[in-house]
Structures are given as structure tokens and as C-alpha cells.
Amino acid sequence: MAAAPELLPAMPARVLQLGPALEVRGGISSVERLIVEHPAAAVSIRHVATMEDGSPLRKAAVFMRAVRTLRAALCTDPEVLVHIHFSSRGSTLRKLVLAWMTLRAGRPLVLHAHGSVFDQFYDGLPRPAQAAVRRIFSRADCFLVLSTQWKRFYLARFALDESRIRVLCNPAFLPPQAPRREGRARVQFLFLGRIGRRKGAFDLLAAFAALAPAVRSRCRLVFAGDGEVEALRVRARPFGAQVEVQGWIDGARRAALLQESDVFVLPSYHEGVPMALLEAMAFGLPLVTTPVGGIPDVVTDGVEGLMIHPGDIAHLQAAMASLVDDEPLRLTLGQRARRRAEGLDVSRYSMELGRIYRQLLERERVRGPV
């Protein structure tokens, strides 16, 4: 009998990841942290910050340091792969410089698109700037997008090679198990994210106010995030302890809120694939959200949550009321949300990202130096 073939070790990959500092608030940094903390086998990832919070002078200094670091890596490591995260506005413009440097050095380039309003940003650019963006995007060895909706957008607007564009939904970090939520006397709705119009925070407060008093007396609403925090607090004052508006919170407090809440609400107008929504699913929370950006790729109406149209406060109020009144529905949606999140676990994400890295490096090695 022939001996079983030995499993070959994974091809090593050295990756330079460029994007916001890991401590910066927001979804991109959350994704970056998970990539750094959970690399695939034989993948080493070095993160280089291209932006930190602070003054314009501080931000400029951080970017120039990133330019110098990238230049040094391109000159000294002939097998480095460069993975660049971008969103919109200044993020895109900074990353075009770094992408051009990588392409000029002939190294594999992964561009990772995150911006929830990139379409609006791009449409507002002058024509020469649009041409520069198209030129760089079209030359990326791999172009990662968060959802099928964003894939359609980039294919249509940038004439990208479809074989180079990959849908890679954001990852979820799963707690060992979701909490049990049966028999709770009061239903807690939770909103996590930037407080403002884009994510529908003020719409959510208006929908809460529109609940019948008998329903509202059996629930409370918690917001946590940055943005227009004080403006929301002013509007929430008439509700006393029934509405709590926190500022930006750390990971431990975030996990505690996800544990103690019963429903996650994110009535956004524009999105990529929001990390807060994936975290809520990982904690087994049913969702009330909108079919924008990449959300329909991970949430089906009536399966993991309830979908409402952006800005439809009456529909949002009705969805919230139904989840207060119907505990079996609330629990079932939450259980399904947890199962859906299991398919987005960071370990699977890391393996897929590792495969992408190795495919690009193997293609580069076969092609040889240019």
C-alpha cells in the first residue's frame, strides 16, 4: 500500500498592512486588529499606521513615517506583499500614494475597500482625480470588497478585472456562547456606532418616542459611540433613565452591553458591513436594521432580524414593538443571528485571507522578477 502523501507546510507570507492605527476608533481598525491578532498559518503581518488621531501636523507626521517604512520594506524585502486598507476622502488620497509606490516596486498589492460612502465621495472628485483613482485601482493584484453590492459598484464604475476582485465580508469574533435571554422583564435595545444621521441614531430615538406608553414602559434604549453624543443626550433627556447615551466605550464595556441587551438596532442610511452589527450577531442578538451596503449579505429579513427602510420611523417603531411583545420571535431571530455569525468567524476569515496572500505570492514567484 502506498504511503499517504505528506502534508506540505503552508507557504510563508510576509505582509505589510497599511491603514489607520490599531487604536483609532472605527470599523477599519477593528478589522485590522483581528487580522493582526489572528493570522493564518505561516503568515506574518506587520501593521504600519498611516493615520492616528490628533492634530493635522500629527497626522502628516504619521503618514510620512508610513511612506518611509514602506519605502524601506520595498527596498529590502523582495518578497513582501502589501495590503492597504482605505475608505474615502483623505484615506483614499493617502493610500493612492502608497499603492503607487508598491506598484512601481513590482510587489503584489492588495487594496481593501471599506468606505460606506465611497460612491458619493468618488462622484464628487474632479475628473483628473477620478482618473488617478481608476488607474491605481485597475492595477491592484487583488481588490477586496465587503459585499456583493460593493462588488457590483466597483466592477461597474472602475472596469476592474473580475478575476481580481474578491468579496471578503468582515470577520466576527465569537464569544464561547451567547447569553440566555429568556424571561427578561425589560427589553433593552442597543445602538453601537457613530452617533449621527448616517447610522440613523436620531431616527431610532424618534421611533422609541413613538412607541405606545404601555410598550415603552417595558423597554429601554442604550446608545454608545462617538459623534453627535451631546446633541442626542439633549433630545433624550425627557425619557430619563429609559434612554442612556454613552460616549465611546472600551472593549470590555462593549462586551458587557452586548451581553445584557436583547435587541441590536442599526437603522443606517449607508454602510459597508458594520463591525458592530457582526459583533451583535456573534452575541446572539436579533437585529433591526436596513438593507443598505453589505448588510443584505449577512442579514435576511425575518431570519436573523427585521429589515426596515432607511428613514421610515413608523416601520422602525413597529419592528421594535413587535420584538418587545413577541419573546419567541426575539429569541429565534437571535439564535439564527448567532448561527450566521459562526460562518463569519475570524478563524475562517484568516484562512481565506491567507489563501489570497499565498496565491498572489505564488503567482509572483512563477512570473519571476520584472
Written overview of the protein:
It contains 15 helices and twelve strands. The protein has helices spanning 27-37, 56-76, 90-104, 118-123, 127-139, 148-158, 201-210, 213-216, 229-236, 251-260, 275-282, 295-298, 313-325, 327-342, 346-367, and strands at residues 13-20, 43-51, 80-86, 109-113, 142-145, 165-167, 187-192, 219-224, 243-246, 263-266, 287-289, 305-307. β11, α12 and β12 form a beta-alpha-beta unit. α2 (56-76) runs parallel beside α3 and α11 crosses α14 (327-342). It is elongated and about 70 Å long. It starts with 12 loop residues before the first strand and ends with a helix. Residues 1-8 have low confidence and may be disordered.
